[in-house]
Amino acid sequence: MTPQPNPQVGAAVKAADRAHVFHSWSAQELIDPLAVAGAEGSYFWDYEGKRYLDFTSGLVFTNIGYQHPKVVAAIQEQAATLSTFAPAFAVEARSEAARLIAERTPGDLDKIFFTNGGAEAVENATRMARLHTGRPKVLSAYRSYHGATSTAINLTGDPRRWPSDSAAAGVVHFWAPFLYRSPFYSDNEQQECERALQHLEDTITFEGPATVAAVILETVPGTAGIMTPPAGYLAGVREICDRYGIVFVLDEVMAGFGRTGKWFAADHFGVTPDLMTFAKGVNSGYVPLGGVAISGAIAETFARRPYPGGLTYSGHPLACAAAVATINVMEEEGIVDQAAAIGENVLGPALRELAERHPSVGEVRGTGVFWALELVKNRETREPLVPYNAAGEANAPMAAFGAAAKARGLWPFINMNRTHVVPPCNISEAEAKEGLAALDEALSVADEHTA
């Protein structure tokens, strides 16, 4: 699709947005949202006709890109057949979506509870764990994000939690492994793994194992920095949870459905949790959908005991039809394997090469189409390019980097002192190289702020 400039319509869209739309995570008078006219594949464009290569996949959810014709057709067909229906009934699209998801989840995660998104999935997984164990506390990591609803935001380990932290949500935070900024003063990945596991077990011991319902981790943390856990860590967490009768929850909302080059990031580690949350890539975000994949043991808890939770739009037919079509497209087009290959052969090598040439890049990490560049003022000291949770003038170096990328037709994913490279899983090699070339030029702007 060729973008057709239409500035007058764009101005009207922008005016209505500014008059009536209340945006998330924003001071309303300090933002200037881009008016988007359309999108296709890995690109979107504005009403001026300027096209951007989307290295954000929306909010890391358009795993098959924008406007895939087979998914659009499936939504249209479902709307014509049965546009909506209450969740207490068996509906073909809902049943088939659950079957396809359960076929791909690890182990015995064969029951699917549908939600409208990732945060609600985390809310319900936490509730299931507490009811299953009869215990109140849930442990989650610093440097994590689990959603913006009440329990999910308290589980989150980044500054977005602070304004809403009730200090009474039964949440205890701990340090997960991250060698580049190790809280354990480790020299290598093995030490980091061992010390992180010991720290987790010590935390459980001092909190009282009989009070801990669950440990929740993003399999590979997303917004917090794409820190792939060291070999053995998730297996070690699994063993600790088993030993103390604690439910192990993996949050795959961002990492799932091909993002890491596997159907689920857990597949890289050979670990099966008791509960797994998902959303985003399950249907590429075309219609809101999330859920919890549930193990046999936890499902049995509610076999004859009602589960006290539900949502009006749980398993909405349009969302589930989109999920069915998305999963089938990913199979037919080999998109999971494509994500693995583009990461191994194109993104990974190119990003590491950029790191060698740009003093602002302190570390490159990732897999599949799930990468982060840690931007620093000084490689030796590892001082971040901007302070933790910087805003305003303190964040100027990252703002300048972002503006440089956009000027070159690349829409970047920026969080604190990092830029993430998270394009659609089916991005082509040519598109990836186009984005990497723009990123190369934008990093030169970040280099100007190094010491």
What are the defining features of this structure?
451 residues, alpha/beta, 7-stranded mixed beta sheet, 5-stranded antiparallel beta sheet, 16 strands
Tell me what the structure shows.
The chain is of the alpha/beta class. 38% of the residues lie in helices and 17% in strands. The protein is built from 13 helices and 16 strands. The strands form three sheets. A seven-stranded mixed beta sheet has the order 4-10-9-8-7-5-6, with helices on both faces. Strands 11, 12, 13, 15 and 16 form a five-stranded antiparallel beta sheet that branches. It has a four-stranded mixed beta sheet with strand order 1-2-3-14. A hairpin with a 2-residue loop joins strand 15 (413-415) and strand 16 (418-421). The longest helix is centred in the last third of the chain and has 23 residues, at 335-357. The radius of gyration is 22 Å and the shape is globular. The model has no long low-confidence stretch (mean pLDDT 97).
Care to give the gist of this entry?
The protein is α/β, with parallel strands linked by helices. It contains 13 helices and 16 strands.
For the secondary structure, the number of strands is 16
Sheet with most strands? 7 strands, mixed
Structural class: alpha/beta
- Strand order, sheet with most strands: 4-10-9-8-7-5-6
Can you count the helices?
A: 13
DSSP strand content: 15-25%
Share of helix, binned: 25-40%
- Helix-strand topology string: HEEEHHHEHEHEHEHEEEHHHEEEHEEEH
- The average pLDDT score comes to 97
Low-confidence residue ranges: none
* Alpha-carbon Rg, integer: 22 Å
Shape: globular
How far do the termini sit from each other? 44 Å
